[in-house]
Amino acid sequence: MELLIGQMFAGLSLGSVLLLAALGLSLTFGQMGVINMAHGEFMMAGAYTAFVVQRSISDAGVSLLVSIPVGFLVGGLLGLVLEAVLLRRMYHRPLDTLLVTFGVALILQQAARDIFGAPSVDVRAPAWLQGNIELLGAPIPLTRLFILLLSLVCLAGLVLILRATPLGRRIRAVVLNRDLAETSGISTRRTDQLTFFIGSGLAGVAGVAVTLIGSTGPYLGTNYIVDAFLVVVAGGVGQIKGAVIAAFALGVLQSVFEFSTTASIGKVLILVLIVVFLQLRPQGIFSLKTRSLA
Amino acid sequence: MNTFLQSRWGVLAGFAAGAVLLLVAAPAALSAFNLALLGKFICFAIVAVGIGLAWGRGGMLTLGQGVFFGLGAYIMAMHLKLADASLFGGSGVPDFMSLYGSGEVPGWWEPFRSPAVTLAAVVLVPGLVALLLGLAVFKRRVKGAYFAILSQALAAAFAVFLIGQQATTGGSNGLSGFRSFFGFDLKDPANKLMLYSIAAVVLLLALAAARQLMHSRFGELLVAVRDQEERVRFLGYDPATIKTVTYVIAAVVAGIAGALFVPIVGIISPADVGVIPSIAFLIGVAIGGRATLLGPVLGALSVAIAQTSLASTFPSFWVYFQGLLFVLVIGFMPGGLASLPRIAARLKQRGAGHSNARQGSPGRRRTAPAPVPAAASTPAASTIPEEASR
Asked: Is the dihedral of CA A53, A58, A64, A65 positive or negative?
């Protein structure tokens, strides 16, 4: 029983990290059909933000709470610049955006190496996040619980923005049919910019979160980007609910596979599973019924 | 100049010049060390020929060529390890296995003791993996970004798998320290020259095959699928089969390149086959011109040469440079260097109302009036039977 709870929680925790990484990716992917390989590097930027903030604010608790909004800003601004300089020129060429942003990712990685050095750095977790709580006899690390809550808060915030604000209506309109939205008087330029700001900002928050469970290095992003993409693909492009289901399902399955086999076999099994799943639902769990996303 | 290079005689002349350059001039002019380096670059160029077909002609952005390269390479490496062990060790067990493992050769290594099985597997295993994935993906009309991400995930999973199997694949150290190649001593300069020549000949053969393919009805169909997949389907062809066959060809070519890479370079490790090397394969192809025949090869060779000469002296600078290359070439010159003359020509006639170059599908179809079978004529017997619509 304890083992089961422990495994379930490990899976949920992995899923919440995947969700944080994939939420913003799903948003930007759905918006312009852009495949942002630099999303993982935006996470890395968020993680280094937490490191820098902690150097100026020595209290780990305060620095964590400050890092989250600052990480959001840093990620968001990087996204804005990327969108303005490169991506807006090429949103009918989704495959090329993948390679262009890969180039950006290489540059950001090398920049991180030159600024912070190649070895990983550590961010201290605040005292109130150290230790475990017991859940039906299974120890649950508080940091993991915090990340789970953070991902749910981000999810709620994003859903609220998309459902209840004029900006959200505009974003949804542009995702559904860019041309019609433009004709209806929506500024797709501004909407793109804001979507990218939010989506990339979420990557920054995800980066701050993962500093609680591991060290921060120039390659932090590459560890997450492939899994985050798999979540988006399995969930259905631009589908927040799909991303949520896929993230937690992949998290739980991966932790079960890794528990019953080895970490490396588990990864391979997950991939096979996704290919099989795409046989059943080629467009992911949910798909947009629209002509504009052919 | 450009039109000459892309005409039939131009290609033939270029082919002959390339053959002389690779097989006569390079061995005469280069030191043994540099010749081995060139051999390594040629292996990358062979991979690039396959990518040029799949990506440039077929529009399939394959981010997982490292997997097929790695499959070919590891199969060859396993054979060389086993052969060395029985030639020099006597025990028949590769050195690293006694170090990290149980000291026994695992069952799935055993078939690769046989040179014939190895040579067949180098071609068949990458081909089979590509066939399975291609059928699974293309039959269900999973395309574009989905395919790219799946192929990338495959590369990631493959690297993780290799690293995890320390006892049987050498883990992150990979396999190295080969001493012989099918009975030939790898230290002997004559044998090194032989290996280089094999690689050069394979490159030339791959190029010739790619050209034949591009100028066949199949090649026409492939371009048609890239540009208008639905219309090709309505004409009665099955785009999934066309794409799968091309993907398999690209995989086989990459596998052969990997198998040549191992004896020439002397090591294969997960660092050569993971996500980043798999994407790095693409940059040379993009720079040279993905939709042309020679572009991918020349691009791959020049990037590899630039990397070797720059990365050792300025490692940090090289990464920035590589990133910038991706951004500039893909973002602003999707046709690669091969499109430069065309861009110049267009700039010259700007204002003449002549702009039919579509973004996203770089490269021209063809210039020379090569034998074009009328695409819409009655399908020949060799064409794929109509697939029941889903």
From this structure: negative
Segment B251-274, tens digit of pLDDT: 999 999 999 999 999 999 999 998
- Pairwise CA distance, residues A249 & B294, whole Å: 45
A213 exposed, middle or buried (CB, 10 Å; 0-12, 13-18, 19+)? Answer: middle
Query: Closest partner residue to A268 among B144, B161, B331, by Cβ?
Result: B161
The candidate with the shortest Cα–Cα distance to A76, out of A102, A45, A53, is A45
C-alpha A30 chain-centroid distance: 14
Rounded CA separation A46/A44 (Å): 5
Residue A237 near residue A29, CB atoms below 8 Å: yes
pLDDT digits (tens, 9 = 90+) for A211-269: 998 889 998 988 889 889 889 888 887 778 888 999 999 999 988 888 887 777 888 88
A88 touches chain B (CB under 8 A): no
Contact A140, A16 (CB under 8 A): no
Distance from CA of B278 to the nearest CA of A (A): 12
Q: Are residues B136 and A279, on separate chains, in Cβ contact within 8 Å?
A: yes
* Shortest Cα distance, chain A CAs vs residue B231, angstroms: 14
**CA-CA distance, B200 to B45, in Å (whole number)?**
10
Burial pattern A93-115, b for ≥16 Cβ within 10 A else e, equals bbbbbbbbbbbbbbbbbbbbbee
Residue A238 C-alpha from the chain's centroid: 13
pTM above 0.95, yes or no: no
Under an 8 A CB cutoff, do B140 and A282 touch? yes
Query: Which of A222, A267, A274 shows the shortest C-beta gap to B160?
Result: A267
In chain A, residues with a C-beta closer than 8 Å to the C-beta of B137 are 275, 278
Rounded-to-integer distance, Cα A38 and Cα B323, Å: 11
- Residue A213 backbone phi and psi in degrees, to 5: -115, 0
